[in-house]
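Whether sequence alone determines local backbone shape is best considered at the level of individual chains. In the encoding step, the backbone of a single protein was reduced to a row of integers, each denoting a local shape. For completeness, the protein is quoted in full, as a sequence line and a line of structure tokens.
***
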Amino acid sequence: MQRLGIAYLLLIGMVGLVSACERSGIDDGFGDASVTYLNSTTYVLEDGLINVVATVENARSDKVALAYARCIASRFAINRGFTFARMVANTTKQQGTRRTATAIYSVSAELPQGERKLDAEVVAVSCAENGIPMV
């Protein structure tokens, strides 16, 4: 009986952890139909380090452009056989109705140290659910 209680608590903890990861992957304002995902480019800076530039139009905040960059980084990681990515730095700029996010990510097969890390597959699912392209 006690084993079942411990297993139940672990399961509830895991569900909460996965939910928190999903919520942290994609933020508010993504259901807005007026947002257009214009383009993205990924550059390999060096082994395990990439630069993602992603541009959106009609976004209500920089968070939308940053989420688009996160989706692109996740797809890059998955396509290259990596499981995780960690944002190293990011900037955003706005010109008229366009917002551009430039973000540098490290990608790895092992869970990286530090903050702002993401599980590429969890983020990819969240991107698909929110209609954010990963191409």
